[in-house]
Amino acid sequence: MKHVRWRLVGIVAGMAALGCGAAAAQEAGEAEVDALIDATESDAGTLAAARRQVGAGNLTGAAATLERSLLLRPDAGSDEVRLYYGTVLCRLADYRRGAYQLANVRNATATGWAEAREACAPAPLTPFATRGDGVTGVLTLGLGYETDALGALTTQIEIPGFPAPSEEGLAITASGALDARFASRLSGQGYAGAAFETRTDISGPDADYLTGSARLGYDFRLRGEDQRLATGLMARHARLAGDGLVTEFGLQAELGDTASPTGRWTVRLEAVDQDYLGPAAASLRDGMRYDVMLSYRDISGADRAWTAGIAVEAKEAEQTDLGYFGGRVFAATQTPISDNGAYIGGSAMLRYIDFREGALGGGATEIRAYVRAVVGVPLDRHGMFLEAAASHSARWYDGASLLHDHNSFGAEVRMVYRFGRSGSPQ
After folding, report:
1. Predicted confidence band at 422 (pLDDT cuts at 50, 70, 90)?
2. For the whole model, what pTM was predicted?
């Protein structure tokens, strides 16, 4: 009996000891949580606590600590916390969320960029991975040759028994595209853009042309870094042989979302009022033009990207048979061919237009095709490239159009300067 009694006392004592140990562990855990809560009351405390957690191998805990701090202080004053949060997420292999946090760091001199770039280096270059306010762009200057430079820009009336007039030409070519982001917030950012393309003949037909466009609006984030809605104003102007050709002004809206870790789909709607310039007859083409485009873009690296899409378009005109309904398909790609930055690329477009029937008949159709292949090599480490390209363009008309078909081959050598972060194929 004595043996049983002492055994029972031992069990009770052991249970009491276990209870004390559990209580002590609970108190220690609560103390640790309280310490973390106190630490996140300031950015300096948050960073110190998170770095201690990372040093102890607790990356998930460090991410939670940094996230809590950003919930309390989400403004630009906490850029270093956001930068380290992105770094920790990338170390957890959550590259998309990590890149998103880095994209919203507005202080380019914040401490920790080198560490962040190293941790997030495996992250794919995504269309939304911009870093706060900034400007990206592409500028080109070169020489271009066309076997039929005259037919490339002008239509020729078909006269039975007579061939279509054509004339080869050599020209200086230039183009540019600039995109700016401003007033960046977690809810979205303002955007502005401008683009131009020009051709100045050295020899051949006097068919110089210049096109320019501009846009301004706001890009709303609807769901984190994934879903976006951009709305704004846009304008275009074109000149041919020194004379104004057409001016457009209207609205543009674009909805985009991610479809894969490296891919993104976009729907773009555009409605513009076209005002044709020149002789009085040109005003017969005045009217609204509408365009709806669906595209998919995949960017798996700084030099590897492709895009493809389909669009429908419609135009109203004062003279009915100058209005039309049509559609187009297009694709472009760019792929690296060496580790020094050299690449190959290509683009293609096929467009079909069905003109409306007017009081005097009409109802002509037009098909346009364009293909281009390019190879580029880097000239330095600062975005300068040399490109050589070959192209082919063609137009085909039905009998109702009374216009000659067009067929031309082209070649171009140009300097290309890219700046900012952009991986989309041009």
Report:
1. very low
2. 0.70
- Is the backbone of residue 284 left (phi > 0), alpha (psi -120 to 50) or beta? alpha
CA–CA separation, 1 and 5 (whole Å) = 6
Span 217-249, pLDDT tens digits:
999 888 656 788 999 999 999 998 888 899 999
Pairing of strands 134-146, 227-240: unpaired
Q: Which of 50-54, 362-366, 408-412 has the lowest mean pLDDT?
A: 362-366
Residue 274 is encoded by which pair of tokens? 């076209």
CA distances 166 to 163, 313, 328, 372, 408, Å, are: 9, 30, 26, 21, 10
Reported as a single tens digit per residue, the pLDDT across 169-213 is 999 999 999 999 887 776 788 999 999 999 999 998 888 899 999
Instruction: List CB contacts of 108: < 8 A, sequence separation 6 or more.
Output: 131, 132
SS3 content of the chain, % helix, strand, coil (to 5): 25, 50, 25
Given a contact cutoff of 8 angstroms between Cβ atoms, the answer to whether 293 and 305 are in contact is: no
How far is Cα 170 from Cα 8, in angstroms, rounded to an integer?
105
- The residue type of 307 is T
Chain mean position to CA 64: 31
Predicted pLDDT at 184: 73
Hey, what are 177's tokens? Answer: 């595209």
Q: Is 99 exposed, middle or buried (0-12, 13-18, 19+ CB in 10 A)?
A: buried
What is the C-alpha to C-alpha distance for residues 346 and 40, in angstroms, rounded to an integer?
51
Beta bridge partners of 246: 238, 276
Listed in sequence order, the residues at least 6 apart from 333 whose beta carbon sits closer than 8 Å to its beta carbon are: 305, 306, 307, 345, 346, 347, 425
Task: Tell me how far apart the alpha carbons of residues 252 and 236 are, in angstroms, rounded to a whole number.
Answer: 12
Instruction: Determine which helix (DSSP H) or strand (DSSP E) holds 64, and give its type and residue range.
Output: helix 59-72
In one letter, which amino acid is 396? W
